[in-house]
Amino acid sequence: MSATLRSIHRYPVKSCRGESLADAAVEPWGLAGDRRWMFVDPDGDALTAREVHGLLLVRPEETAYGVRLHAPGAEPLDVALPAGAERVTAHLWGSVLDVAVAGPDADDWSTRVLGRPARLVHLDDPAQRPTDPRFSDADDRVSLADGYPLLVTTEASLAALDDAVLERSQETHQPAGEPLGMTRFRPNLVVAGTSAWAEDDWRRVQVGDVVLRAVKGCARCVMTTVDPDTAERGREPIASLARIRRWDGATWFGVNLVPDLTGLPAGAPPPVVRVGDPVVVLEAAAPGGGPVRPA
Prior knowledge:
There is one protein chain. This protein is mostly beta strands. The chain folds into two domains: about 10-20 and about 25-130, no CATH class; about 150-285, no CATH class. Helices cover about 10% and strands about 35% of the residues. It has helices spanning about 105-115, 155-170, 240-245, and strands spanning about 5-10, 20, 25, 30, 35-40, 60, 65-70, 75-80, 85-90, 95-100, 120, 150-155, 190, 200-205, 210-220, 245, 250-260, 270-275, 280-285. Strands 1, 2, 12, 13, 14, 15, 16, 17 and 19 form a nine-stranded mixed β-sheet that branches. Strands 5-11-10-9 form a four-stranded antiparallel β-sheet. Strands 4-3-18 form a three-stranded antiparallel β-sheet, with no helix packed on it. Helix 2 (about 155-170) packs across helix 3 (about 240-245). The two termini are about 35 Å apart. About 40% of the residues are buried.
C-alpha cells in the first residue's frame, strides 16, 4: 500500500486540544493557525501541559475573528484577534517573544479555568522565532510549537508501540488499558501505509504538492503520559518507549518537519495539504540508525 496522509491536526492554543481538519495551508512556520495562542503566567513564562495538565481539557475552536475557548465547567469564551496595542514579553524554551495580549476577559477566564494566574497572548508575528540552528537553516521559523513547524507520525509506528505496551503489561502483570491513541502525541500530520519507524529515515518528503524537510526526531517528554481525555498521568508511553526507542538518554516518537517553500512566486498563497494526499519520500537515510538526534 502506498503512503497517504491519513489526518491533519491543528492546535490553535499551545498545549490545548487540537482540531482535525480536511485540509490546511502550510506556512513557513507551520500549519495556518497552528499554535499562535498561548497561556502565560504573570511573568510572561509559557504555561504548558507538562506542568498544568488541565490545559489538555481546554478545547480551542478557531473562528473567523479569533478563537472560541471551551473548558469543563466554564462558559465558552469568544476571543477576538487582539489589535496589538497592549503587548508583553513572553518566554518559551529560551525564545523571548513580543506578543499581543488578548485582554482582561480572556485573562479572567484563563485564571478561573486553570486555577492559577494566567493570561492569553497571541503571536501576531511568527517570523520572529527561529528554529534550533543545529538542525535547521538560519531563516527557518516556528510559531509557538516546541521547536519546529510540523510534526509527523505514522499509524504503523503507533501500532508497534501499542504492541510494546501490551507486551510490557504482560511481563509486569499490570492492566494494559486502552490503546494509546495518536492524540497524546499531538502530531500535525499522520501518515498511513508505511512500515513501523520508517519515518526515522526520511530526510525530504512530499505531501501532495508540499515538500518538507525532516530535520530531527521528536524526543518525547512527560506530557505524553498525561491522558488527553482525563488529564490524569500514567507511565505510558514513556515506559515502553524507553525499552524500544531509547537513544542518547531520550525516548523518540515522530519526526519534526520544516516546510521547503522555496520557488513559490512572491505573493502566492501558501500551498495546501489535504487528507488523502500521497506521501512520497524524496530523500532518505540508510535505515536502522534511529531518528536524527543530537550528536
